[in-house]
Write a structure and sequence with these properties.
Distance between the termini: 174 Å
Strand content: 15-25%
Radius of gyration: 57 Å
Oligomer: single chain
Helix content: 25-40%
Number of strands: 8
Shape: rod-shaped
Number of helices: 3
Order of helices and strands: HEEEEEEEEHH
Largest sheet: 2 strands, antiparallel
Strand order of the largest sheet: 1-2
Length: 235
Amino acid sequence: MKRVIATLLLIAEPVNAQISSTAAPVANSSGSVTNQAVQVVPARQFTNTYGSGISCQGTTLSINPFISSTTGWAQPYERYYNEPVYDTLDLVGAFDPEGNPVPDGRPDNPGSILFHKPMRTGQITNLSINGGITATISIPLDRHHVRTCRKAAEKQVALLDATLADKRLNYEIARLRNCADLMKEGIMFHPKSPYSKICADVVLVNPPGVLPPHIHSIPTSSSTAENADAAKQTQ
């Protein structure tokens, strides 16, 4: 019975707890994240056209330099702020077994501000400049049709060269014929004329009605004539 009463007294005995009201440090962090992306758009492949509806595409390398900038700031701008320092003095509020006042774990003047402490905010303006180069290579997948198109392009170029040569030949023959006809009629450009070069390389040989320079031998006797005839036969 005595043990039960002692146990009850221990349970019912008042307990004085010491509670500290000192504020724990609190860290506040804030920030912002800016995500920037550079979009690479496939460039159009270069197309070479050779006429007659023939056009071929090849591999394309596209190089795109870029530059981007980001600026971040906060409004209003405050370099410092005043942080209140509270009165945490705790001297009274409870009593010890002898009746003397002792701290009770609570501030004697709760909410009382002793002073303000300036705190730096660390607020700054952020500026970033980024640059780079993007490169893309576009390759046709159907290589068979690309090769066939190139062969057709080579044939088309050869055909154009032949057509050009034919037109050049017609032009030169017409120039030769016209210059010769004018020379026969005694019409020519003045040597100082810028157009005299048109017929400068045309040579008129044996024009009609003009006897070219030649030499005839006139025999003086029959023996001389016979010798001349013999010399001609020998030649």
